[in-house]
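Students often ask why we bother predicting the structure of a whole assembly rather than each chain alone. The short answer is interfaces. A chain on its own may look different once its partners are present, and contacts between molecules only exist in the joint model. In this exercise we take three input lines together and write out one structure for the complete complex. Read the inputs first and try to guess which parts will touch.
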Amino acid sequence: MAIPLKYNFRSIVIRWISAGMTVLGVAGVTAIFVVIFAMGIGMERTLVGTGHPRNLIVLRQGATETTSGVTRQQASDIAALEGIEKDAAGEALVSPELVVVANHPLRGGAKANLALRGVGPRGRALRGNIKVTAGRWFNPGLGEVVAGKGASGRFADLKVNDRPFIRGRSWTVVGVFEADGQAYESEVWGDIDDLRSQFKREYSSLIVRVKSDADLPRLAQVVKDDKRIQLEGKPHADYYKDQNLGAQMMKAMGFIIGFVLSIGAIFLAANTMYAAVASRTREIATMRVFGFSRLAIWFSFMLEAAFLGFCGGAVGSVASRFLFDGMTSGTANWATFSDMAFQFRVTPMLMGAGVILAMLMGIVGGFLPAFRASRMTIAHALREL
Amino acid sequence: MKYLRLVLRNALRNKLRTGLTVGGTAFLMFVLIFIMTALTEMEAWQGAAETHRRIAVQHSTGLATPLPIDLENFLRSEAVTRHAEHLQKLNWFGGYWQDPKNFFANFGADHLVVRELWDELSIPPDAYARWCAQKNGAIVGKSLATKFGWKLDQKITLHGTIYPCNPELEIVGIFTSSDIRQEEQLFFRWDYLDELMGGKKIVGTYWMKARSAEDIPKLKEIIDGHTKNSSDPTETVTEKEFGEQFMAMMGNIRTLVASLGTVVLIIMILMTANTVAMSARERVTEIAVLRTLGFTGGHVVLFVLAESVLVTTVGMVLPLAASLALFNGMKLSPNPQFFPYFLIEPRTIVIAIAAAVLSGLIAAAIPAELAARRKIVDGLRQVV
Amino acid sequence: MSDSVVRVQGVAKVYRRDTQEIPVLENINLEVAPGESVALMGPSGSGKTTLLNLIAGIDRPTRGRIEVAGLALDGMSERELAKFRSRHIGFIFQLYNLIPVLTAYENVELPLLLTRLSKAERRTHVMTALDVVGLTDRIQHYPRQLSGGQEQRVAIARAIVTDPTVLLADEPTGDLDKRSEEEVLILLKRLNREFKKSIIMVTHDPKAAASAQRTVLLEKGALVTA
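Now the answer. The structure tokens for the assembled complex follow.
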């Protein structure tokens, strides 16, 4: 089955205005789809990756860290429970934490809620993969804090040696840390006792490392069953996953919008292809006379349509990658009422999906016109001259 | 006018092409309306307009921090009441009913001033009397009650997420409001909440009504100035500013959504421009003939623009009607938790119509100009 | 003669294609009296259609002067030329050039839309024109439903409906079969003899030229006989 491909390619070049507009339209739809999804993926990456698989977070039932309260008594009761991992010194691997939210100016001037977290001495070890990328870790008792990479980038006065005024006193930023893209990067960390004395509160949560995977659900149940305590324990990873509302909504929006826009793009492609077929009736007839089969004609137009789609998808995906990938943005983490920095993630897989979607748009749009081209009777086509 | 027939017939000349363009525009327009409504709904959270002259006093570090009770003494002093009235303690309780997914606005509020401060709510007088008499009473907006199937006298329990208590409330009244979004609220008594919390006198925010618009800046100065050097500095904001801080939390999302809408508009223009260009190419001779008969270049531009706008306007009608039926009529919402209401505003309708007309004009601008400029003899010579 | 309906003086037309200059007409002088019918003949490429286009005001001469119905065309803007055409020129094309989406009636009515006549008044003129060309029974038909001869007659009706000063016809019978050709030529002759319309007809067909009162020959852009 010989396919007159060169002919198709040249025809596109001649009708470059129409082809160009179609490519741009498809590119636009692809870009929208990719960018929305990139937002969702970025938000999700921040949340879903967070939380060591053997960490339990203990807080008040139904609360989040910003609305929960755990007393020192409760904290020591829990630290004494069976099944908690011990560190090298034989101490329970537990970190009492206090999360406090403060309205703080962003770099652009507007204000947003910044999460300030007081962590116990084992807080960093419990998280794993926390790296100091500038300055050093804080020392307790001196009002020193470290800023997560995301927070440092979004908010004002959070670079090393800055002295931001937060919630009633000045703190000293001694370092910036990275946490593998986890949610902590949107926070500022300090010593738990520093924060407790400043805000006159006890703890908001307890992070606990369990000895084995089996201990995770078991310990959670023990905490829940203890009527005295009125707290609940959740796998730390689940706690973060549950806040994924925003990301899920993004993805859902991406689907709906992308789907509906695709239909629009399909119509655009169909229009272009119909016009292409109509203007080339003479050539189609000639090719048929010379022995190219109906199927060959159909296939060649389908390829042309798919090619237009491919170009549009490539332009849209690549443009999205250039313009958006890695871009840091922030939005509200509604559960904790604080700012959550995330990065747009235009992954290669997403780009590939975009291109495939675009090609599909072209193929679906070109299907009927290609069919029409192949169904044309030679006599009819020649008569049209 | 008399040229309408020509424009209409020309539009219908290639029914398939026009149909595809109308169809494509329709889908794109639907997305545009959807996006705009998402935007206006997010903005609606800002609350009522400035006309009510309400102001809120919140802790300067944010809403998560409670205010001290002794601030109330100051707020009731002559210095403040000279400029404002109807002081109310209002705590966002943030509880849920039965399932954490049943999220709605619930407040512990000073019941004695609810009517005066939130005067756009229509609270039945006997319900109000009951509420004053019953400590664990609650008044509920009609649409919220309908949503959860609550009836008068029904007992409901809220689960606290911020406050460690579970108020057991009895619905003593159902109120309505001209702004239907305000019916998504539940108020119970602040003193009841305080009792459950062991009398700690935690105040979320103070609200009051300024006596006049000019009093507002004065109040901000007086109140914030008084608390500036205390351990609990405040920020006094208007109701609008209060709502805006939620919008600010959304941050970039809003800009992104707006950009999305622009891109959709551009795609719409591309689609129509493609069609107009194709048609114009095919009608070169015809346009030359019209000009030979005495039609001017201006006429030609008019015909091309009119045809384009006709197509985009028709493409706008169906999605507009459909979305009005779906969202305003059937009250559907793409995400009931995030958007309890998803209503198309008059503003959106106007923008949709304007977008249709504008995209028709822009799409046809260049082809129309080219058609009018082409020399008549060149047009006649062309064999299409 | 000052009462000529068309006066062409010293007209020349040069086409510029890229950097090449192609002279099409050179020093044309022509006068047409009111009520005269003139045939413009010449081999292809001799510039006859160009001359017709210049007289119609749809093209501008490189040199020279053209006057139609006492109006000088060279000073006119595009707008004024359009107005001039709608009032004074009736054009008949070789390929009829009817608007395919309009019926025969609507095609004939089209030039009248540029006037201030009411719908009823327009109807009177249209029916009169269609009556003259003998097509009152086909008014609701679209051009694709008409034969070539019928289409041309509709085109002629369109050309006369505004009662223009002069009729210009470019190879009016060039695309017609023998019988239609005869019908059209008889019609044109009648318009000239009976209705006293001035007609300038471009043709390469001697038979068509014979139906005119006078023949003018163009060769390589110059008039051979006047």
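Check your guess against this: Chain A has two domains: 5-48+244-383, 55-211.
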